[in-house]
Amino acid sequence: MYLSPKSFRRGIYLLCLLLPAAWGISRDYYWIGGSGDWSDISHWATTSGGSVTHNQAPTAGDDVFFDSKSFPGAGQVVTVNSDNAFCHNFSWLGASGNPIFRSASNTVLNVYGSIDLINAMSFEFLGDVHLLAASGNHHLNAAGQLLHRNLLLQGTATWALQDDIQVDSLIELKSGSLVTAGHNISAGYLYILPATPVNLQLGASRIQLHGKPFRPVPWEDYPVCWIQSENLTLAAGTSTFEFTSPFGELRFRTAAAPVVLADVYFSNGGGEGLIAGDNGSSFRCSTLQFDGHGKILPPANINHLMLAPGKQYELNSGQTYQLQQITAVGTCAQPIGLRSTIAGDAVNFQATSGNIQLEFTTIRDLNASGGALFVANNAVDLGNNTGWTINARNGNDLYWVGGSGNWDDPMHWSFTSGGAGGACVPSGVDNVFFDGNSFSAAGQTVTVTSSGAHCRDMRWTGAAGNPVFAGSPNHQVNIYGSLLLIPSMQWHFEGDVFFVASAPGQTITTAGQTFKRNLIFNGNNGEWALQDKLEVILAIQLFRGSFITNDQDIICEDFLSNVPSPRTIRLGSSHVLLRLTRIDFCEWTLHASNLNFDAGTSLVELSTASGGMYHYGPRSILQYYHVLFSSDNAFVYSDQSVSTRVQNLRFLSQGYLGATVTSDTLDLAKGAEYTFIERDTQYIGRLIARGACDGTTLLFSGNPSEPAYFVTTKDNTNQYLSIQNIHALGPGRLIADQSIDLGNNNGWMINTLAPRTLYWVGGSGDWEDTAHWSLSSGGPGGACIPTDQDDVIFDERSFSQTGEVVSAIQYWSYRCRSMDWSRVTNSPQIRADYLLVFGSLTLSPDMTYSVSVTRFRGKDQHTITSAGHNLSYIYFEGPGKWTLQDDFEVNYINFYEGTWCTAGFDVTLANIYFSSGDNPKKIVLDSTHMVITGPTITIEPWRSYGSNLTVDAGTSLIEFTNPTGGMKNRDPLVFHQVLFSANEGQSCLGNEVGGSRYQWVKFNNDGIITGNNTFDTLLFAPGKSYKLAAGLTQTVNDYLQIIGNNCTPIELSSTQQGMPATISSTAAVINGDFIQMRDQKATGGARFFAGGHSTDIGNSNTGWIFDNAPGYVEDGFFGPDRVLCFQQSIALSAANNSTRESYLWQDGSTDAVFSVTAPGTYWAEVTFANNCQVRDTIRIAAQETFHVNLPADTVLCDGAILNLDATLDLTGITYEWENGSDQAQRTITGAGRYSVLLSLSGCTSKDSLEVSYVSPASLELGPDTVLCENAILLLDPGISGAGYQWQDGSSASSYTVTGPGRYHVIVTTSGCAVQDSIAVAYNPLPRFNLGNDSTLCAGRPLVLQAEVPNGRYRWQDGSSGVTFAATVSGNYWLEVDLAGCTARDSIEINFKPAPVFEFGPDTTLCKGQSLTLVPIVPQGTTLRWQDGSTDSQYRIRQQGQFHLNAAYNGCTYGDTIHVYFADPPVADLGADRVICAGEDVVLDATVNGAMYRWSDSSTDSFLTTGMAGLYWVEVSFGICSDRDSVEVTVTPLPELQLSNDTTVCEGGSAALQAFTAPGVGIQWPDGSTGAIFEAKVPGTYTAIATENGCESRDSVQLNWQAPLIFSLGQDTVVCDDTPYSLRGDRFGGQGLVWSDGSTLPVLSITAPGTYWLDVYNGACVSRDSIQVEFRTCAYFSAYIPNAFSPESAREENRLFKPYFPPGVEIVAFKMNIFDRWGNHLFSTQDPEGGWDGAWRDQPMDTGVYLYFIDVTYLDDRGEGREQLSGDIAVFR
Question: SS3 string of 751-771?
């Protein structure tokens, strides 16, 4: 028979399936052939050095071996060329030739057993190693090799180290057990964060970690070592955790139990060690040692804390640290700093015993307790240290000497100016001086080193030579007093400066020096006052204390005081300027709790790019004077409990008010955009919204569906506003002239502008320039710039030269309804940061669109025509609908509200985010192909956060091309097709709530699916790894494909080992093969075929069938052989559904599909992306060779079987028998006609036969049996007329069995022979002996036993024990059954009487008692006591051991008792007692070890009472007791009553009176004894009354009420034509009186003079006065001539310009001159720079010209604006 290559391979596969090592059972893989790829199956042999190879690469159940026969040459390389490699055990033991194991960094070695490497190899595997065993004990033998990336242990097995291990990056222990067996570990990072139980046994191992904390994104940071106690069993042994990097960090995750370690060592002396933890975490360790600086944040129990000289240490304020020993020995040159993290907030040291001693330390905020002796010698006490014996080091004045040097060098410090060095390095109590004797040359440098700098005062007065103070950013300067710098020095110190004084009166003089980093104030009760201007590059931070600006100006990036500790900020008249230096946001943040904030008349200004003001804390008021946002973006935010009040709040750019703000004046910039948080209210006195013709100001609510509210106290009129969703609540009127109502505004008077169509004219220019806007195409400029309701058009008349540019002075000014560039010429450009479009956007290919952010906000339906331009960032912010008109490209889309219809056009973008708000959002995709190119960093490139999102997917395809692309939705959505097309990386797909539905999803790379989703079709690529959400369900309706191949298997697992993920389907086609599967559950009714080449890892999968689906061809991608039949041709496909495949056919062609037209054998070779190759062969047969032939008709005996085989030498044939069977073979067991139909490729062949049966005789010898020793058995079949043949050749009709063996007989009847057999075995009888008959003494039982192994026992009483205790006379027998055979024996036993008695247990008597022992024995018994006496009883009066022996009838018996005597207790309550009413007396009857019963039935050793009466107690020791009693008498207290609490005005006094009975003595706090006492200061006063030895007390409170402090304002000068009034009702109080005697709330001033006001407030009256003067004021007017002559003899007539009255300040000015045809001739912004009648230096003709003047001014009425226009005549 011809055997095709495919059939031959199938024969091998069939053989493999029949061997014990079948699929799913561990097989041995031996590497052969030297260098090669892991996926090349020609390198994997079934035996060491063998020639028979496996048919696929190793799976998770297979052991792999690299041995002495693997590599014929030296340095040969095994390359892992796929993303994942799998095996069970991974062994290189015995490998020779120094082989190399190599991979790229993106690969993973998945090992489900042990690892054995060798020294004589190169482990160049650059990817991760995963240990994933689910059970058993395994080991890791790295043999000194470095694991170059990460090592993950995730399984429920146990791994043991067999030698030291080195890992370049991370060791992560997620589950299972690790036993280090004392071997050392070296790694960059170690994370132990188990989700399931982890057991870690460290023994004596040293874990050395060299990594440093890192932050992949600004909001996430990762430590060097991270340990979680939950789910962790840690046996620390004597191990050591060593951190060697300069920034080692050990972090603990929140858990109820502390993490227990042995030794922890931060060994880098030049760095800082940090121990951190989540809230609630804690730890314990034997030794914690720092060689560098250190910080310990979680509470801890530390046996021995070791600190290094010259280093600084912080412990977390408020936490408790339990200690047994501290080694902290500093020196004069290298003192140690030990303090809490927050000044004034102490840490708690607890030690129960011993001495805790520190040497040369600086300590602050350390509370010591617990019984140990805490001593600090040569210490610097910086305050708030309790429980210590501090032998303080005296503060000194230290002088710098010797020029350049390091701060911590003692040789540079002297006790005198210019003296000898060698003094101690300064501490926090030492003043330091840099003076004329410090430096010997110019530019010498004082450098702060790693230990930092500490001092009390630092003064540079007199220092010469322009010295330098320097240090790196990671060092600190700590100043506990004042700082005085000088101009002639250079402050180059780049680190933070801490001011930590604990007393007032500190000053800071900067002398123009700039602090390079942060300035931090943190001192309980500390106070710092500026002496001159303060400039800080980064932040000023106030944690505790008082910050007084002293009216000095401040410049910094951030001003932060966001903690609730006590603080004071006084700004005076300072100008505080926040400006940017490093990032794009400056911040002012205050926490109002415990904050005394006085803004004075200060100006707080936030400038540059973006700035924010934030307020937090409890209900409080923060009052500012003047706040100016000169930044481009401004933010104001407060907790709802914080009320923010500003006298003058001004914005020079757009702003966001995320809080309720009360402002006397709210000043908004022209053309800017302002967002007011929805539902909050703005309280406004005067609203200045500077909208103008060249810029409308936009006011709107932060949520389009909810309004913001304005409350105004005055009428306010503004113009050129765009208002949306703002509700005005009065009482003042809000009037908006020439403005736009964008909808949902209440309470406004809006005089609306009419919508316009505007045309750009004049070429390049600024958007805000009205000269470029015309009401007609190419018409004259001068129209107001576009508003939110105006359409703008750029056309062929807009630009006259190539590349002209439209730009903007203010980036927020670009706003319009629709914008159309479709008709432009000359390739213009538009440049803008922001463009706000309320309608459609139409671009042109002949232009450059350089807009950073395009925002679509509006209603109704609109279009977007991008004309091939990338729109960069776009926002959909309005309820309208925008429909694409062409293909679309954008970097980023942020979707807040509205509908976006792609209309089937292709879309390319990097990220699309749907906001978290509830505003309706809808995207209509139609047939769009959307390509998303962005990566997943911490947020997926498609991300929906909120509800109310609708996706109308249509027939769209969403393709993610980035290797880390992903889609994450909050709520369930419906999609059509989703493709992850990248070949590398890992993509994610899922939902936060519920799950989405997908018509078709395909992954070409690794993938993670979260949420409960539904797929019609789900496709996974070969060679990739997929994780499904643990505990959740993915539903597949139609088709699921998970097919790998020999070269590229698929890994399928859940996201959490041990918790399965579920795939559910009722009828889908589930095709899988070559899968490494773990923790998968299949449900729903469909048949889930994992494939015959797949591995059920750890038997962790349920519902899956690890076999091939019917019709699945396991050995190739062609599928079954085929028959040409009547077809003209057959199309063969070599495609394997993976990416980047290449093909080679037998004829050399390289297409994926090959057309066959003739019978024959064809093959194709597929090369995968990892260079692994797979070849398959298929046979194409002719029609005539397809024929089946069954045997002829036949007759069989009943019971006989007939095997029919319809197999043809072609694969893939379908077999159909008459009973429906689909197998090639058929077993016949009954009569009938049998037929089979063969089908292949549409061809069929059929054959049949008839089978008949004859019945043989019935034969039965019976079952196999076992007989007992000496038994016989008769075998008799009982069939008459039959022929017999027994096993011994005899032919009798019966057979007698007398011995063991197998007996058989053949019986023949009617030509049919039947055979039966029986096996007979014999068991021996059990043998045992109970012994001879016996006579015994009563009281001593006889134990009977029989030792018969495996026997079953039955005694005469039915019991079944091995032994039996006989205690009475009688006959005893035992029957033993051994394997069904029994034997019996018996014995006669007679018991005679014996003298048995019992004294009972040992006992204790009270002294004086006795005990008589009386044994009860038969008469005639002989007795002998321990003392030899023979009496029948014995009396005991003293302590001892007593024994009796009794003899009777030849039998003896004895017993012993111990008797003890106890001392009785003594009850003594002492003498009777007399107490005062309200007092308690303690009656103490304590006797060690006694029990008590009092007269009130209580049982304590003492009784506390305040009641009169007789009390007794009974005291007991066991059975001994004693009683005593005592009488208690109560004396009443004297009567005392003081006058009521009272309040007087501050500085007043009050007479306090005591009321009591005659003869009672009175004593006041000052010792006086009178009934009247004069209280002069506020406080609580207590009087004591004394009578009969008893005292009564009463108290009264005296309060001072502070007088009301108010101000009528500074003396002023007012206009004599303007009414002026003073308001008194704004100061509070209960009443007021003006200087004219009136009591009205307002006083009108009509004449100059001095005016005063008295305000009554409780007991106090306060007064203030003001001087008011009158003057004549200036008001704006303009004189504009109507003609001029440039050649005039008079100079004032040569220029045309306006003239303004004296006293009027011109703030802004712009004048444009046009001719009668609209041509622009002249422009100036200088009010003194008039027009000379020329254009481009050429005199204009005599004639009439047009002028337009826009002037902003400041006069005595305030700021104003006028727009003037008219004619001007030019005369020559």
Answer: EECCCCEEEECCCCEECCCHH
User: The whole model's pTM is what?
Assistant: 0.60
pLDDT surpassing 90 at residue 437: yes
DSSP bridge partners of 479: 455, 499
Q: Bigger pLDDT: 321 or 1239?
A: 321
In three-state secondary structure terms, 1140 is: coil
* Average pLDDT, rounded, for the chain: 88
| 379: CB partners within 8 A, 6+ apart | 358, 360, 361, 362, 363, 390, 391, 392, 393
Tokens of 1016: 């019609």
Other Cβ atoms within 10 Å of 999 Cβ, number: 18
Q: How confident is the model at residue 770 (pLDDT cuts 50, 70, 90)?
A: very high
Do residues 97 and 75 touch, judged by C-beta distance below 8 A?
yes
Q: Token digits for 117?
A: 């490497």
Largest CA distance in the chain: 171
- Provide the token pair at 45: 């042999």
Helix (H, G, I), strand (E, B) or coil at 390: strand
pLDDT in tens, 1754-1771: 988 888 888 888 888 888
User: What is the dihedral angle through the alpha carbons of 459, 462, 468, 474, rounded to the nearest 10 degrees?
Assistant: 0
**Residues 1565 and 1552 sit within 8 Å (Cβ to Cβ):** no
Distance CA(973)–CA(952), nearest Å, equals 9
What's the CA gap between 1244 and 1257, in Å, rounded?
43
| Cα 1443 from Cα 290, distance rounded (Å) | 70
String of DSSP letters for 937-974: SSS-SEEE-SS-EEEE-TT-EEEE-STT-EEEESS--E
The secondary structure of residue 1717, as a DSSP letter, is T
Task: Say if residue 22's pLDDT is above 60.
Answer: no
Helix (H, G, I), strand (E, B), or coil: what is residue 594? coil
- Identify the H or E element spanning 447: strand 445-448
Identify which of 876, 768, 763 has the alpha carbon closest to the alpha carbon of residue 812: 768
- Residue 735 identity: I
Question: Cα separation of 453 and 449, whole Å?
Answer: 8
For the chain, helix (H) and strand (E) counts, in that order, are 1, 172
CA distance 1249 to 1191: 7
Rounded distance, CA 943 to CA 957, Å?
17
Residues 6+ apart with CB under 8 A from 1497: none
Contact 239, 218 (CB under 8 A): no
Tokens of 1289: 């050749």
Q: What gap in Å lies between CA 456 and CA 429, rounded to an integer?
A: 5
Do residues 814 and 835 lie in contact, with contact meaning Cβ atoms separated by under 8 Å? yes
Task: Give the number of C-alpha atoms closer than 13 A to the C-alpha of residue 111, restricted to the C-beta side.
Answer: 24
Contact (CB, 8 A) for 343 and 368: no
Identify the residue whose tokens are 């016996």: 1334
Q: Is the peptide bond before 731 cis (omega within 30 degrees of 0)?
A: yes
At 18 the pLDDT is: 29
Give the integer Cα–Cα distance in Å for 1434 and 1441: 12
Which secondary-structure segment (H or E) carries 13? helix 5-18
Structure tokens at 1476: 């005062």
- Give mean pLDDT, residues 1604-1619: 81
Structure tokens at 1702: 């004296």
Q: How would you classify the pairing of strands 1491-1494 and 320-329?
A: unpaired
Tell me 810's DSSP state.
Answer: S
1023 DSSP 8-state letter: T
Q: What is the mean pLDDT of residues 1150-1168?
A: 86
- Give the residue from 1762, 1674, 1746 showing the smallest Cα distance to 1710: 1762
Residue 905 is predicted with a pLDDT of 96
User: Using one digit for the tens of pLDDT, what is the confidence trace for 900-928?
Assistant: 999 999 999 999 999 887 889 999 999 99
3-state secondary structure of 1616: coil
Other C-beta atoms within 10 Å of 1547: how many? 10
